[in-house]
Amino acid sequence: MEEQDIFTVLKFITQHLDEHSIVWRIDGSANLRVQGVDVNVHDLDIKTNAEGLRIFKEVFKNYFVQEFYKEEIKGDVLEFEILGFPVEVINNKYNLLNRIKKISLQGMFLPVLPLREAREFYAATGKEKTVTVLDRHLS
Q1: What are the pLDDT digits (tens) for 85-121?
Q2: CATH number, domain 3-138
Q3: DSSP assignment, residue 95?
Q4: Alpha helix ranges (H) inside the chain
Q5: What is residue 37's DSSP assignment?
Q6: Contact (Cβ atoms closer than 8 angstroms) between residue 111 and residue 25
Q7: The pTM is what?
Q8: N or C: which terminal CB in the chain sees fewer CB atoms within 10 Å?
């Protein structure tokens, strides 16, 4: 996904979620990219809780692809195709929803996991390549 594609999909999502009380944040490579880290983004990952999964499934039912349990992350995943791009909405024990920070970009307030905390997560889960990229970016 190109950077503008990420923002286009995020704008669409935030506009549709505005009227709902939901806790969510951008995750994975998209989280890093919207915070200025030079990484490739193949899909948009979003973390939420069980209630958030329910709301996403209801609000974006016309974009729904499938629902499954992903053993690798020990969590429930909803897969959508929104504006032609893959979006995964995830609920698992690694949500870190208590560490959300809102950043302002392109007229939106986007919920993200701060980069230092993302680095801690990637280090704890053995993603050394991403830790190296984050260390370079943060220095």
Answers
A1: 999 999 998 788 999 999 999 889 999 999 999 999 8
A2: 3.30.460.40
A3: -
A4: 3-17, 28-34, 50-59, 115-124, 128-138
A5: -
A6: yes
A7: 0.91
A8: C
